Amino acid sequence: MPSLTPTPDSGGTPGRRTPGNGPPAAAGEGAAAAPGARGRSSGGPGAPGRAGGGPGAPGRAGGGPGAPESGTGGTGGTGPGTPGAGPALSRTGRRHLPVPRRAGVPLDRLGLGVLAYAHPLFAPGEWAELTRPGTPLHWVVINVHRGPGVRPDPLFLDAAARLREAGVRLLGLLDAARGGRRAGELLPEAGRYLEWYRVDGYYLDRAPLDGHALEEYRRTVARLRALTGRAHIVSGHGAYPDPGYLEAADQLVTFEGPWSRYRWAQPAAWTENHPPERFCHLVHGVPRAHMETALRLARWQGAATVHLTDRTGADPWEGLPGYWAQQVRSVRDGPPPCTG
């Protein structure tokens, strides 16, 4: 089994997240990773170096919408932005678009992005867990029937209302079918989510990966934003897409898959030019004994939004993991993710 420990001659500064630098090793899988030197004070053992401190408790009162998220994106597209705020500079000197801050857990702190695919009828306790004060949620995705369904579901209406009251950012799932579904199909579904469940944005599942679909995808996202002018867009690619997709969405899901692949995953080189709040990792089949290692990997790879589960099968997101409470504590109290 190859070592996961960063080495000084691997093409990057030890402790710095680069494609040539290995992720931190887990206990029993090689030497423990040394605290990194990513420009801030070192984190906990095995975690890349950055000042500790967990994310704040959710604070958005009454489920009110956050700041407008529509703004001028990169050349040829509309992307996230904040009125009156220009592009920020990354450590490499490259300009990137800032992600607007909302009330609740800041996106630049490690937080949870939950695909809540269990029906409230069968998992009322799990939905109640998502409203528990102090849970470090970035967002929760609702999926009524591979979309909003054809009529309002009373139990989902109640669950959505409780999440809004708890200050949780609520996203509606839209199936982009790898670019096979265009705005004409997605907009009516988005409108029903907005009318019935008062969502804050959308999770575009099975988003396209290659650049050929990029222009159409940008147009679709721009029309989704126009529904409210402040929709938070998470682009569910599941792997590293063409970097141009960052110009359209607020966040990209650049990994969705099993722990057996994630433990050897490497970040794409272009992600070094962008802050962690732009990236999400969703990993299933993670044993309880490796949960902390998986969180360290997410921090090292520069993903600020993460969700781990020990569940497997056809749909591992149809319920919370058996170690949900432990994951909440680890994310809330752990160090922030690495920056580029």
Lay out the secondary structure.
Elements: E1 70-72, E2 78-80, E3 88-89, E4 95-96, E5 111-116, H1 124-129, E6 137-142, H2 154-165, E7 170-175, H3 183-197, E8 201-205, H4 214-226, E9 232-236, E10 251-258, H5 259-262, E11 279-284, H6 291-301, E12 305-308, H7 324-333
Parallel strand pairs: 5-6, 5-12, 6-7, 7-8, 8-9, 9-10, 10-11, 11-12
Antiparallel strand pairs: 1-2, 3-4
Describe the model.
The chain is of the alpha/beta class and 340 residues long. The protein has a domain at 109-333: Glycosidases (TIM Barrel, Alpha-Beta Barrel). Helices cover 21% and strands 16% of the residues. The strands form three sheets. It has an eight-stranded parallel β-barrel, surrounded by five helices. The protein has a two-stranded antiparallel sheet with strand order 1-2. Helix 1 (124-129) links the parallel strand 5 (111-116) and strand 6 (137-142). Helix 3 runs parallel beside helix 4. It is globular. The chain starts with 69 loop residues before the first strand and ends in a 7-residue tail after the last helix. Residues 1-16 and 26-103 have low confidence and may be disordered.
Distance between the termini: 28 Å
Structural class: alpha/beta
CATH architecture of the domain at 109-333: Alpha-Beta Barrel
Strand order of the largest sheet: 5-6-7-8-9-10-11-12
Largest sheet: 8 strands, parallel, barrel
Q: What is the count of β-strands?
A: 12
CATH homologous group name of the domain at 109-333: Glycosidases
* Topology-level CATH name of the domain at 109-333: TIM Barrel
Low-confidence stretches: 1-16, 26-103
Average pLDDT works out at 78
Radius of gyration: 19 Å
- The helix content, as a percent range, equals 10-25%
How much of the residues is beta strand, in percent? Answer: 15-25%
What series of H and E elements makes up the topology? EEEEEHEHEHEHEEHEHEH
Supply the CATH class of the domain at 109-333. Answer: Alpha Beta
The DSSP helix count reads: 7
Gross geometry: globular
